[in-house]
Write a structure and sequence with these properties.
alpha/beta, single chain, 2 domains, 3-stranded mixed β-sheet, Rossmann fold, 42% helix, CBS-domain, 297 residues
């Protein structure tokens, strides 16, 4: 059973998760005739990553931080003289607060989009993103329980806030499994099919982020370091005494430049150092690129 079907079954149970369960009311909006500069100022003031574009108070588009980078910064446009309607993504998909979450996931995957606009009856309610969903499902997995909870004596002691490079995939999972089965909260970032890993290590509840070009609710394109970083932030913000395993360094390096990955991992280690979690990174020291990245950190 793949992760999307698994989530759909959970959402269609007796107590289905609906949009209102996972998002608080609050939406940033701007008229389509306003400038990109004005939109950027509003987003910065409210610390929000997206703004809904309206016409006569009806949502007609959406502008995100990614749009600023791709459609303004990278092409040298002047945000003060560019209107938001010129860079907005349109048309948008709108759902109600009572919509089951599994339906929203299907919409995101089928339409290859990252966000939907939420309404409550006829009023704007908020914006729900792929990152919100991944973070919520990570939290749900933590709240639901921990794999095979017990407290045996551990062979590998991990210090909170530390990063460990572990040689070899098997050893990495041995360390992770030892800790999640003794009560720690876990998150696995991997290039392998999560269903196979779940079966191999009997990890029924530990959440996964799958680095792949396949589109599903828990997948992330390895080139999308922003989404990956946001998803990890969600886990670090929720987990207490957590263990994060990154088993996909080679794929990240192949999909980005080594310098980008070094910067990404430096920032990740900094965030982990201020958290109550531990970071494990699988390393193959015979891989020149992986070894270079590790030595550069």
């Amino acid at each position: 059973m793949n992760a999307l079907k698994e989530l759909s079954i959970r959402a269609e149970s007796e107590s289905p998760i609906i949009v209102r369960d996972i998002i608080k009311p609050g939406v940033l909006k701007i008229s389509k005739g306003k400038t990109v500069q004005e939109a950027a100022r509003l987003m910065a003031e409210k610390n929000m990553g997206a703004i809904v574009v309206t016409e006569n108070e009806e949502p007609v588009g959406i502008v995100t931080e990614r749009d600023f980078v791709k459609k303004i910064v990278s092409v040298g446009k002047d945000p003060e003289h560019t209107k938001v309607e010129d860079i907005m993504s349109s048309p948008i998909i709108t759902v109600q607060t009572t919509t089951p979450v599994f339906e929203v996931i299907d919409l995101l995957v089928e339409n290859n989009i990252r966000r939907v606009v939420i309404k409550e009856d006829d009023k704007l309610y908020g914006v729900l993103s792929q990152t919100d969903l991944i973070g919520n499902m990570s939290e749900q997995c933590i709240v639901d329980g921990i794999d095979r909870f017990a407290k045996p004596k551990r062979k590998h002691d991990l210090k909170l806030g530390f990063t460990y490079f572990i040689e070899g995939v098997k050893k990495s999972y041995d360390v992770l499994v030892e800790h999640v089965t003794s009560g720690k909260e876990g998150l696995i970032i991997t290039t392998e099919n999560p269903d196979k890993i779940r079966a191999k290590y009997d990890l029924k509840r530990t959440p996964f982020l799958w680095l792949t070009n396949i589109k599903a609710w828990n997948t992330i394109n390895p080139k999308d370091l922003k989404l990956l970083g946001d998803s990890v932030d969600n886990f670090l913000g929720v987990a207490k005494n957590g263990v994060l395993l990154l088993d996909g360094l080679h794929e990240l390096i192949s999909s980005n430049s080594k310098e980008e990955i070094i910067d990404f991992l430096r920032e990740l280690r900094k965030k982990v150092s201020k958290s109550s979690s531990t970071l494990l990174i699988t390393i193959n020291s015979e891989d020149d690129d992986e070894y270079y990245v590790m030595k550069s950190l």
